[in-house]
Amino acid sequence: ALRGSFARKAQKPNQSSHHGLQLQASYKVAILGAAGGIGQPLALLIKMSPLISALNLYDIANVKGVAADLSHCNTPSQVLDFTGASELGNCLKGVNVVVIPAGVPRKPGMTRDDLFNINANIVKTLVEAVADNCPDAFIHVISNPVNSTVPIAAEVLKQKGVYDPKKLFGVTTLDVVRANTFVAEKKNLKLIDVDVPVIGGHAGITILPLLSKMKPSVRFSDEEVEQLTIRIQNAGTEVVEAKAGAGSATLSMAYAAARFVESSLRALDGDGDVYECSFVQSDLTDLPFFASRVKLGRKGIEAMIPSDLQGLSEYEEKALEALKPELKASIEKGIAFAQKQP
Ligand code: NAI
User: Fold this and answer.
1) How many Å apart are CA 10 and CA 43, to the nearest integer?
2) Strand locations in the chain, DSSP E?
3) ipTM of this predicted complex?
4) Is the CB of residue 320 below 6 angstroms from any atom belonging to ligand 1?
5) CB-based contacts of 241: which residues, under 8 Å, 6+ apart?
């Protein structure tokens, strides 16, 4: 279920929904931070989806041109632009999926946590508006540090009395995309067949690929497991360093985020076979938030998959225990930030 590319799935001709209707544009998606490095290519990829009737682009600047440009693509969705706080509410009205890539990215030498001070406030403000204008929407948080911004979003939604833990997602799809790519490369596998679950969080050692649980089942030496795990954990930093001050992953991130949007729309549309890894409220471990594979349905998360965390390799068990203190601290930092705000 996890393996299709979003575009291939979405473009199957004559696919009927659970209502027996033709697959057609009907969902509204908003991107907050749409003029940014991730926002622009993400908007382009989403514009290709036949499931979307409206694509609302919001940013604090430069979004008019992005929308004018995209609106010339002859795909179904109508593209609208919204600039600045006064237009945020209108951007969000009636929206089914809100994607949040707003905020500053890393520069060489920075950790994701170094972004906390700026991005925490941005996410808080944006999620308040989501709570006021489209409390039923699926919320996809991309802004880093995801390990903290998702708990912040949860607190904000709780304060507003509209928190639905089944609809709040930290986007960790890029970790899965990277894991699939690197493993397929290393083992000469056909990419389409490869599906590596990635659990934990979205920063450094909190990113834990479960190579023992991947499809197809593949044998790795201890050394290969170690090398692949470390490469997947540091892949973001690989891009930050290669871009040398010009930002972090944007194109692969847009690809991954578009896949997660497409999966969400298929779930909303009644597809009963949609699974993605995401950082969500969770009772699979003793941590309140945790990334793991979830089954998506019309109301958000339909099921967690506890068996994914059973029968781990010794390496994975150790790595899981080792990541918990950092992940716990990042979660608590986010909660504390949101609770001390007026
Ligand atoms: P960017 O700087 O190119 O774009 C960010 C956009 O957000 C800009 O257009 C900016 O105007 C906008 N923005 C800033 N404040 C805003 C506000 N209050 N409301 C609305 N928009 C606002 O940054 P980029 O490369 O697009 O990265 C965005 C975020 O995504 C960063 O926090 C980065 O760390 C994160 N990221 C997350 C990944 C993940 O796997 N979850 C992977 C890569 C990046």
Assistant:
1) 16
2) 27-32, 52-59, 78-83, 97-100, 138-141, 168-170, 198-200, 207-209, 274-281, 289-297, 300-304
3) 0.99
4) no
5) 108
Q: Letter for the amino acid at 91?
A: C
Let me know: does 168 contact 281? Beta carbons within 8 Å. yes
Q: Which residues of 298-311 are buried (b: 16+ CB within 10 A; e: fewer)?
A: eebbeebeeebbee
DSSP state at residue 24: -
User: What distance in Å separates the CA atoms of residue 306 and residue 141, rounded to the nearest whole number?
Assistant: 23
pLDDT of amino acid 60: 98
pLDDT in tens, 265-274: 999 999 999 9
Specify the pLDDT at position 262. 98
Mutate to test the pocket of ligand 1, among 58, 104, 330 (most ligand atoms within 8 A of CB): 104
Is there an atom of ligand 1 within 6 Å of 244 CB?
Answer: no
Ligand 1 site-directed mutation target among 56, 106, 142, 251, most atoms within 8 Å of CB: 142
Q: How far is the CA of 254 from the centre of ligand 1 (A)?
A: 11
72 is an active site residue: no
Q: What SS3 state is found at 57? A: strand
pTM of the model: 0.94
